[in-house]
Amino acid sequence: MARYMSSTELYQKMEEDDGIVVIDVNSAELFKKEHIPGAINIPLQALSDGVKEFRKNQRIVVYGETHTDESSNKAAELLESMGFRKVSDFDGGVHAWKQAGFLTEMPS
Questions:
Q1: 3-99: which CATH topology?
Q2: How many helices and strands (H and E) does the chain possess?
């Protein structure tokens, strides 16, 4: 089972580990509105195809929109079933990220 990660822990990991992959599993429309800096958008429906180039031992963190959004949990389960070994679920998503005082990226 994927471990949960807090917003502070995610921020620290992103600062320390340049090999970490942060995946926003929201729709492309939500991703375009705002997302965690450095995140890539692979909607949940496209996840199995979208991660084929990643290494199985690469650190991957997935997130959705809010704490009540189950998409990140489903994404973490899917990645683990595909053999990825270092999967974390950033529970709370963009909402928790902003609540912790961290900035998001938005299109200009």
A1: Oxidized Rhodanese; domain 1 (3.40.250)
A2: 5, 5
